[in-house]
Amino acid sequence: MPTPTNQNCLLVIFGASGDLTKRKLIPALYALWRNGTLPESFAVVGIARSDYGDEAYRELLYDFNPSAYDEDASKWAEFSQRVHYLSADSTKAEAWPEIERRLCGLSQQYKTGDNVLFYLSLAPQFFEPVIRHIGQSGLVTEGRRYCSLTPERPWQRIVIEKPFGSDPGSAVKLNQVLAEVFDESAIYRIDHYLGKELVQNMMVLRFANSLFEPIWNQRYVDHVQITASETVGVEGRGSYYDSPAGGAMRDMVQSHLLQVLSIVAMEPPVSLAADDIRTEKIKIFKALRVPTASEVPEIAVRGQYGAGAVSGVSVPAYRDEDGVAADSQTDTFAAMKLKVDTWRWGSVPFYLRSGKAMAEKKTEIVVYLKPTPHVLFREQAQKLKANQILISIQPDEGIRLRFEGKVPGPGMQIKDVVMDFDYVKQWEASPPDGYATLLHDCIRGDQTLFKHRDEIECAWDAVQPVIDYWHNNPQDDLPNYNAGTWGPSASDIMMARDGRYWHNF
Predict the structure, then answer these.
(1) Active site residues
(2) Model confidence over 72-100: pLDDT tens digits?
(3) CB contact set of 123 (below 8 Å; sequence gap of 6+)
(4) What is the pLDDT of residue 148?
(5) Residue 39 · residue 139 · CB < 8 Å
(6) Vertex 90 angle, CA 87 and 94, to 5°
(7) How confident is the model over 450-471, as a mean pLDDT?
(8) Distance (Å, rounded) from C-alpha 182 to C-alpha 176?
(9) Cα 187 from Cα 155, distance rounded (Å)
């Protein structure tokens, strides 16, 4: 596999007037440019239906999030000259002659050659028509020359935002449509969680330290918890979140949390090449035990938040949000127990949960180790807690080991202690934004942190029985947790049945 390189290219963002572009993509590109990590010949063109010219669009980007750019206005002015805009409906065939003309002109102006990175920052119903128009336009060269100014073999890549389908069938169809236009090596199914520094640090933690790898198996690990909780509600996205593509199980568990699980559970790859890492992740996805309908009530819990308060601020009930049905069954909280049927993990349950309007914002992995086989400290046994390895992905990035220690003084008093690796303090740097990392990898041609089609399809297979069961069995006690709490009591009961508890603090 060729070594990823930072090649000149034109970045084309479809849906460029949306919040994602203004809030994440352009600030991430600006940060890369300020750090000198963008290629020398590089430009951005945003395409959307909104009627802007280049200068008006640049002002819109800056005014939306001025804190993302330097106080030195000259830096933004210099960078923004590389940002252009075209008002066009990319889902319509009649718009494409002008799109092709504009892209050809910009590639000549900035000497980017035929290298094009297409970014679909669109509503999912528009993915298929835009992909097909890209294929019909001739912009995907596959060996042909198009506005070529460089002797190197040109490339075209495509980045797909989530949601990637709304069920297994739609995910398979979208993969088929992509495969008609792009080779798998050119498809970048983005998941911003995989761009987070501490998620990537998981491989270093496991495979560079003999302290951890020997115990990373069912002999020593009791269970693993992966939590992604948010304090905010749907933030004006009620109509989307209450659609067939919404809900915590689809939006978070199927997408982000199963990706994190695959990195926690994967076997050591033969190298750090993208194909080798993805091979091991795919094995984990294929080993996920698909639940039966009869198992769902025991291994999955849904919730929906009612009115409450988060940090003293009142939060309305989900059903009172704009665009949400008064009798909505959409899950704003989802928890699920999964098994990975491999020799390493056969008896170890993985507990995943995610929710909105919860007590605390955090994303973390907690590995609970089994108790020692012989309890010497019987009098203190009721006080002893399981040893834990806690990987905090956000907001307090770091790795923490929790174990038992003796309190100084007479007698045998035991208390839990924590050994703390704080990412920011240790390196005197803040983790880079996930989108900056992932965009840079797209430009370099490194697929390590992006999903393979097999990962997508297996992830849907693992959660779809739960989604189907919930759809066929409406729950009459929704909403069943107050905003500002840790979710429905049924989630705690699910854990208690197994003699376990959630790590909430």
Answers:
(1) 256
(2) 788 999 999 999 999 999 999 999 999 99
(3) 15
(4) 46
(5) no
(6) 90
(7) 96
(8) 10
(9) 11
